[in-house]
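FORM 12-B: Structure-to-Sequence Request
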């Protein structure tokens, strides 16, 4: 099968899976088997493309021409391979986790849940493989619309309010800011294609470039740069597998992926470096890193704490992309992977704690490590990765970002990295300490064990990936180096 056919299949397989899930909804075991098989097929399609990209090829295929010079086109390049690889690798694990969570928590509307999940993965892969800004925008919007029912899944007042906040902010930013930026780009350059070195140089002034940059950074609301971040904590009303989808598999990764891709392939690093105002965007990202960490420090609800942690960690990627040095661009790519592994582990553990014990508050986790040792060990690994402690994935990505800051002589970024690391430790380590080094005062009356086996297996797998990435990261580094022309 040719690379072009594999790319089409990668987008089509989850969509076909969604249809089959709808048809088998009355038979839960068959429906869940379809979900697992579909997710495995997607991973097979995506990873079959890896040797092609590592060999330096950039396969593409035109799906449909909208207008002369405007077409829906797929193209595989290194950054897209990284994003598609993460989404396709984590979907089977998330599906396994979801089976235990949805059954263990007696959730309603499970067929709709699995169906929307499949559509979301199809659109996420479409974002990853988008060959131009038009294609990216179409799949970006489908991703927003397909995840709205997941956020509002519970159907109560809080879920509906959270869902409205979620979809309103994402659509307002994308239609009100990102779409005008795309139209402006087309008017200025006559193309929306992604190209190494960018397409804007020589077509717009420095002042116009600054305004266009801010339209993209804030218009890509899924990147959650302050002040367009409120959709993310609002979406915490969703079931935990949805939170995992939002924070690790698809939605927020689509956001930071889009920002990084626009920086590299639309503006171009060299042209963006000539725009002094890009440092303002860098300062905004740095502020988001620190401010979100400070807010997380004050949270008592575990999922809200993790939500603000995500906002902070996403801006690490935006910050790294805007440093505009080879090492920082590699660091941005690596942190997309590191954050995915670490944060999905943390959300998996939060859901496991809820299913097994119905506990949602940080203050309720006293001694829980004695009852749920596998879950809280996984939580510890995920937390250490967020802090950036070896041997976890987060250390590798932060090391490259730190190297990029030194390349750019950016003391601001160095300060942000140091302060945010301290804040991360300040809100994660007490949870670990409370879980393992305190006794549960109500242990006799409220003794409980681990969550359902499928959930424990899933969170153990992602925790293992968080550790393994510290040692086995060469393919991702190779992709990232080819992204920046081998500079390091």
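FORM 12-B RESPONSE
SEQUENCE OUT:
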């Amino acid at each position: 099968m040719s690379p072009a056919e594999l790319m089409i299949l990668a987008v089509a397989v989850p969509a076909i899976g969604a249809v089959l899930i709808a048809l088998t909804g009355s038979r839960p075991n068959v429906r869940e088997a379809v979900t697992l098989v579909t997710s495995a097929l997607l991973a097979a399609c995506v990873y079959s493309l890896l040797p092609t990209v590592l060999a330096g090829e950039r396969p593409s295929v035109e799906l449909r021409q909208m207008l002369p010079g405007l077409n829906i086109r797929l193209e595989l390049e290194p950054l897209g391979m990284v994003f598609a690889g993460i989404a396709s690798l984590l979907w089977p694990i998330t599906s396994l986790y979801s089976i235990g969570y949805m059954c263990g928590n007696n959730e309603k509307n499970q067929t709709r849940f699995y169906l929307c999940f499949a559509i979301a993965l199809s659109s996420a892969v479409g974002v990853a493989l988008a060959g131009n800004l038009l294609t990216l925008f179409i799949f970006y919007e489908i991703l927003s619309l397909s995840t709205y029912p997941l956020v509002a899944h519970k159907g109560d007042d809080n879920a509906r309010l959270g869902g409205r906040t979620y979809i309103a902010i994402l659509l307002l930013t994308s239609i009100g800011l990102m779409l005008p930026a795309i139209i402006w780009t087309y008017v200025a350059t006559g193309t929306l294609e992604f190209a190494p070195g960018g397409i804007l140089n020589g077509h717009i002034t420095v002042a116009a470039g600054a305004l266009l940059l801010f339209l993209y950074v804030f218009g890509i609301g899924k990147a959650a740069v302050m002040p367009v971040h409120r959709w993310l904590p609002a979406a915490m009303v969703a079931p935990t597998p949805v939170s995992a989808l939002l924070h690790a598999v698809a939605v927020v990764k689509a956001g930071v992926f889009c920002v990084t891709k626009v920086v590299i392939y639309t503006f171009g690093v060299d042209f963006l470096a000539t725009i002094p105002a890009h440092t303002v965007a860098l300062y905004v990202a740095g502020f988001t890193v620190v401010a979100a960490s400070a807010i997380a420090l004050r949270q008592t609800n575990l999922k809200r704490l993790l939500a603000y942690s995500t906002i902070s960690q996403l801006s690490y990627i935006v910050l790294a992309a805007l440093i505009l040095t080879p090492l920082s661009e590699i660091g941005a790519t690596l942190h997309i992977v590191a954050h995915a592994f670490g944060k999905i582990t943390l959300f998996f553990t939060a859901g496991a704690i809820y299913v097994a014990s119905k506990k949602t508050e940080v203050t309720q986790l006293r001694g829980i490590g004695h009852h749920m040792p596998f879950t809280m060990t996984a939580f510890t690994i995920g937390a250490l990765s967020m802090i950036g402690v070896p041997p976890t994935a987060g250390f590798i990505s932060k090391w490259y970002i730190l190297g990029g800051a030194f390349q750019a002589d950016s003391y601001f970024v160095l300060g942000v990295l140091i302060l945010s690391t301290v804040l991360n430790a300040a809100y994660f380590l007490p949870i670990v300490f409370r879980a393992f080094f305190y006794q549960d005062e109500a242990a006799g009356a409220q003794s409980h064990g681990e969550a359902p086996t499928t959930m424990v297996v899933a969170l153990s797998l992602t925790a293992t990936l968080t550790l393994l990435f510290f040692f086995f990261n060469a393919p991702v580094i190779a992709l990232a180096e080819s992204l920046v022309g081998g500079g390091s």
